[in-house]
């Protein structure tokens, strides 16, 4: 786990580009979650009406779930398979949270991606974000994760670490909902 000045996240990104994943089950959020991890599932309605799925995808793939939840983001562009991203928690010093996108999804009725942890991340595992419409025109974000502590400090937090994760997962959904509803001509969820 590393703490750096917030302004140096770009340097942390450059270092993380060469790193390997910290867990063997890369891509598992696309199917059955592996044993030996804490599993998280969270589903929230983020929008409704014509174009809501496209607006939600635009927000999701430009890191607005993360920035809208209060995290700093260093990435060389929008979500793309293989892209490394470094999140920063806190200012002026940031807890450095390096990840890499392991898969993306762009189907007519399902959009999203997953990223996995790299060395220095406080946890070990993967988190996915999938958008899908329902039959009533609502758009839902489902966040699925499998994680375990990535270091002794997080392990010592026990349930506190999971509470922090749940806090951010809820904020991710709220950030996407705000992005979708802030577009002109939209319907609130």
TrEMBL record:
Q: Could you name the domain of life of the organism this protein comes from?
A: Bacteria
Pfam families in the record, alphabetically? Answer: DUF1990 (PF09348)
Domain DUF1990: from-to ranges: 22-174
The protein, known as: DUF1990 domain-containing protein
**Source species:** Sporichthya brevicatena
Q: What is the organism lineage in this UniProt record?
A: Bacteria, Bacillati, Actinomycetota, Actinomycetes, Sporichthyales
């Amino acid at each position: 786990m590393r703490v750096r000045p917030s302004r140096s996240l770009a340097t942390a990104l450059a270092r993380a580009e060469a790193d390997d994943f910290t867990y063997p089950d890369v891509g598992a959020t696309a199917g059955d979650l592996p044993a030996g991890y804490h599993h998280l599932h969270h589903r929230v309605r983020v929008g409704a009406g014509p174009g809501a799925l496209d607006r939600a995808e635009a927000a999701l793939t430009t890191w607005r779930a993360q920035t809208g939840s209060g995290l700093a983001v260093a990435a060389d562009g929008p979500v793309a398979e293989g892209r490394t991203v470094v999140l920063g928690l806190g200012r002026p010093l940031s807890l450095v949270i390096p990840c890499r996108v392991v898969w993306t999804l762009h189907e007519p009725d399902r959009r999203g991606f997953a990223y996995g942890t790299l060395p220095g991340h406080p946890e070990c595992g993967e988190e996915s974000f999938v958008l899908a419409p329902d039959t009533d025109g609502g758009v839902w974000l489902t966040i699925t994760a499998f994680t375990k502590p990535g270091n002794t400090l997080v392990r010592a937090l026990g349930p506190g670490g999971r509470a922090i994760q749940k806090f951010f997962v809820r904020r991710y959904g709220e950030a996407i909902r705000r992005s979708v509803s802030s577009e002109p001509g939209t319907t609130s969820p």
